[in-house]
Specification:
The complex is a heterotrimer of chains A (752), B (158) and C (103). Chain A has 752 residues and is of the alpha+beta class. Chain A folds into three domains: 24-32 and 456-601, Aldehyde oxidase/xanthine dehydrogenase, molybdopterin binding domain (Aldehyde Oxidoreductase, domain 4, 2-Layer Sandwich), CATH 3.30.365; 35-136 and 210-257 and 264-296, Aldehyde Oxidoreductase, domain 3, CATH 3.90.1170; 303-454 and 605-751, Aldehyde oxidase/xanthine dehydrogenase, molybdopterin binding domain (Aldehyde Oxidoreductase, domain 4, 2-Layer Sandwich), CATH 3.30.365. In chain C, strands 2-1-5-3-4 form a five-stranded mixed β-sheet. The chains are: A alpha+beta (752), B alpha+beta (158), C alpha+beta (103). Chains A and B meet through helix 1 and helix 19 of A and helix 2, helix 3, helix 4 and helix 5 of B.
Amino acid sequence: MNFDPRYSGRSFTSVGTRPIRPDGVDKVTGRARYGADFNMAGQLVGRVLRSPHAHAKIRKIDTSKAEKLAGVKAVITAADLPDLTDGDAAMYDILDNCMARTKALYDGHAVAAVAAVDARTARQALKLIEVDYEVLPHVVDVDEAMKHTAPLLNDAIFTEGLEEKPVKPSNVTKRTQYGHGDIHEGFGQADFVVERSFKTEQTHQGYIEPHACVASVSSDGTADLWVCTQGHFVYRQHCAQLLGMEASKLRVTSSEIGGGFGGKTHVWAEPVALALSRKAGRPVKLVMTRDEVFRASGPTSATSIDVRIGARKDGTITAAEATLRYSCGPYAGMWAEIGAMTAFACYKLDNVRTVGYEVLVNRPKTAAYRAPSAPMAAFAVESAVDELAKEIGMDPVEFRIRNAAQEGTRSSYGPVYGPIGIGPTLEAAKNHPHMKAPLGKNQGRGMACGFWFNFGGQTCTDLNIGMDGSVSLAVGTVDVGGSRASLSLVAAEELGIDYGQVKAVVADTSSLGYNDMTDGSRGTFSSSMATISAARNAIKTLRDRAAQTWDIPIDDVVWEKGHAIAKGEKYGNLAALSLKEIAAASGKTGGPIAGHSELVADGAGVSFATHICDIEVDPETGSTRVLRYTVVQDAGKAVHPTYVEGQYQGGAAQGIGWALNEEYIYGKDGRLQNPGFLDYRIPVCSDLPMIDTQILEIPNPNHPYGVRGVGETSIVPPLAAIANAVSNAVGVRMTHIPMSPPRILAAIEAER
Amino acid sequence: MAGVAVSTTINGDTVEYLCQPDETLLDVLRDRLGLTGAKEGCGTGDCGACSIILDDRLVCSCLVLGAEAEGRHVETIEGMAHGDSLHPLQQKFLEHAALQCGICTPGFLIAAKDLLAKNPDPTEEEIRFGLAGNLCRCTGYDKIVRAVQDAASVMKGA
Amino acid sequence: MMPKSAQRFSDKHHGPNEGLALMVEVTLWGSLGALAGGKSKVEIEAKDIRELFRKLAEQYPGLEPLIEKGIAVAIDGTIYRDTWSKELPQGAEIFLLPRLAGG
């Protein structure tokens, strides 16, 4: 990488300001085009037939009646998506999830699909498809699925990571372990030990825009896909592989995305839409219903976690241990492993061990949800940490400050930390007025910490300077919450021009090199690094053109505040050339001026947050009310502080919903009973207070501006912070999320 | 099924269309008239992303039939700005960053406009309850409430 | 063509051990260790991530499928995912981690 990514400690002109986003007007006037807002001439309507059974063998599918219905142009089953995965187990799982091959593995699993002239015909056609199922016993609970008597989802799965190779298949795909030191010795030094078990229920990202795409496959083997996704380049690769196409012949355009939060990092219906289009010879639009989104996209894991922490009287933690069991849906995942890595990441521990078990259940395939797996682990650990502080008789904030990780601490998942923000967020929380505000009857205050890794990854950016001096910035990470604004600020900063002179767009897969998924809070981190690099490459050309204009060596030309300046007294008579002037002459000095960048953005700085909340509980009904909520989080450097605040507030709100309301409820038949926003209730405006934010800036040493990812960490502390607040309000430790009114009432009554 | 001929007024313009008797007004707006500003987030009236104003009443257009618009006045997000000048609510949503992904924004703007038409000086609580029929998953509502408060004060002054 | 500042940066990092393979100690996480014959630490002579992966796969064939699937390398606490050319500085702490999914 011919680019110096190190933090330079510079001062900023554009970065840190709060301009209006470039895509804003389109979004407030209804003009912005999302997944379902795009149409093609001759387009058909695609719909998917889904299994009503949690677990069933597919004996036979008869599509003949559906095919004969007037207006039906294509009907497909797994036979139309042959296995081209060539031994790639992960891709095979994606294929099987897109269209069940031999077994339906959850309520909602796709088994067939149709393309028809209109929605009504497509719906009628689905009813004419006859599927002969052999219903099998199912299991949806993570603890039940681990028992040796549980129905097996896949008899070819033998638990990996055990010391002895297992002889019997299991629903546990993998055991993983992290930690260092000797926990037995550590617990031996403890004066107090807290040991608790916790459960969290499965939740959905709850993006308001259902998955939607328009696929058009031509008879010459080329294809276009318009889709709402967090990673159109990854979608292109996956779809091309599953359909046996060359990637370059499939152009994927990322629409505006109506929320993703990790849920739009996996292909679901897109390969199906492409296969329908290929068979029908016409474009196909496929939009999931909300019911389908809940039943058949990718919610987060349900979990069961045991935690044990020991400490000395002086408040030093001597040992910490956790066993984490996470549901993966029907396919292997690494969700418990991430939980095991993140669980104790906030603390400086000499003796720590975490063990994770990945568990298959008859639920939809688990997908990432904002700092995936970390909130549940933090709920368990931070609840136990609060209990331990109480037993020792220490203030919970002081107890955490005493044990907080710092620069040089060996993290619980292995590497040693560089400069980090857990200590400063705790100090800020301790000194926040919220901590000292009085509480009333039936009210409790809770606080908790959270950690997320943050990712970087492959990134490609183009920066083109028009002859009028305006700048087009083409990026390949998807704008999920204002990154076109933040990246325009970065380009303006680097070039020394006004924010308004830059126009950022998300380029399609044929216009730009490969970009990894926009996940792991990497959008602004990675693409700003590539934008800085691209801008510096453009500046090199700008200097070169100025040098040509002046007929002096390029080394005598510097770039300052948007101008080329001839350096040194001998050039005193040369007036600075603006970017605009250099651009205007570009046709005569060597042609278009551009800067490109292809890099792997490494060194995403880890991020920490501390949240404080006040909850009031009605002891008669168990209902709760969030009275006050404060987020303190390290951003490294907030490029557009308003959108950083927005990330903090949004993550907190999702966490509040998870903590208090949201859960997948399955019936005894293994069918999801609440696949809609009426019964799966996400927080509405009247449920929440204002959410206060405090942005800390502890620069990431591996980014020129010190930027860290900010998107995910904010959902990590809320489950625990709210559980601690509710526990303090009712005087009973809450161990099961969500803390819905019946659970709170049951906990209060059990204590009476 | 025979189509139903409908004559209605949308954003002040007379519009005529044919629709199926079981077709929602949302589908008519989006699929027949190309007005895709109203979004389908749920199709069951729970998310408010398809909010429109029908004869001065805030409704979810996914719960109204296309045929029911006959002879009535429909107001959608596409009619909110006047030419190139944004409605104060639109402007304040931009200034306060009251949108992240923006999919819920048209619905919130329509609902907020309806709220302020009926209650030009709402308290924070009235705004929160007034907008409780619209789901936003990105913002935590904080900046939306502030944008509506700010727009209300601008509109009062106007 | 590199900007001057980047050249200085690269020079510094090429520094004394350019082209010279060093013995580095690599820490393997639990399940990886099992595939490397139960070792939690291994010594490998390697100058960069590419060589590290190649030699790990040679010396511990059990690790090869995981390396193929993708492994992250933490060097002095900074996690690298795909940068084969990243050099392994002398005395650095090197830690192998799984590649993660994110939201």
